[in-house]
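Hi V.,

You were right to ask for the full record rather than a summary. Here it is.
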Amino acid sequence: MDDFIWPIRVYYEDSDAGGVVYHTNYLKFMERARTEWLRNKGFNHIALKQQHNFIFVLRKISVDYLKPAFFDDLLTISVHISKIGKASIIMAQQVQRDAEVLCTAEVKLAGINAVTLRPQAFPLDVFNVLN
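Predicted structure:
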C-alpha cells in the first residue's frame, strides 16, 4: 500500500523556549496526518460516527524519538498501513525533515461502537477501501 504524506510546519507554540519541538507534539502531528489520510481515502470521523456509530480509538503506540525538530521546520508525516484486521489497523508512521527521519511510531487503532464503546468491525465500505 502506498504511503500517505502530510506536510506540517512547526509553529512557535509547538516548541519550548529553546525552539525544540515538545515530545507530545509529535503525537499530535501524527494524529493530524492519520485524520488527513482517512479524509484522503474518502471518509471522515464525523460521518463514520453519524452513519455507522463507528469511531477509531488509539489502542497502542510505540514511539522512537531519534532527532529533534525545531521551530519553523517543515516536516512531513507519513502514514503506512502495516496490517489491517476486521476491527483494527496497524500503521507505521514517520516524522521527517527533508530526508532525515526524526521520529518513528507503530500505531494500533481499534474500531469501536460510539454508543457501547465495545469493539466493532469496520463498516464494509471503509474496510474495502482500506484493505
